[in-house]
Amino acid sequence: MMNQSLIAWNVRGLGVPDKRARVKGILRRSCATIVALTETKWNVYSRQLIASVGGSRSAKWMAKDVVNSKGGIAIFWEEADFELLDTWEGKFSLAIRLKPAGVNDIFAVMVVYGPQKKDGKLAFINE
After folding, report:
1. Structural domain boundaries of the chain?
2. How far apart are CA 19 and CA 23, in angstroms?
3. Which stretches in the chain have pLDDT values below 70?
């Protein structure tokens, strides 16, 4: 069975190439097999952008765009290491169910980014 590790990180924006390079270095050294990022502040996700922060060009991902320059969440993983079984997207969260290659285990990963304003917090809790 392969070793599995997850990094969940509030990166507080990845718009600057130098910051993406620093994040990529840390993620590569960690050898994480799944990465969950919050506050990416990205509106558009691409294979090239995911690779720029540590995912390989074969990485799969699920992402939620920013709203009014706030938020942005993403989960990425290596397709060769995991079979994606299911996805779920809420207003404030993303979830995936994965099966690691070569084993019968199944697990879920959820990444959440809650609203900062009081009027959105009830909707967040209800989700």
Report:
1. 6-126
2. 6
3. 1-2, 68-69
Distance of CA 51 to the CA centre of its chain: 13
One-letter identity of residue 69? S
Entry pTM: 0.87
Q: Give the CATH H-level superfamily of domain 6-126.
A: Endonuclease/exonuclease/phosphatase (3.60.10.10)
In order, the DSSP letters of the chain are -----EEEEE-S---SHHHHHHHHHHHHHHT-SEEEEE----S---HHHHHHTT--TTEEEEEEEEETTEEEEEEEEETTTEEEEEEEE-SSEEEEEEEETTS---EEEEEE---SSHHHHHHHHH-
| 56 within 8 A of 86, measured Cβ to Cβ | no
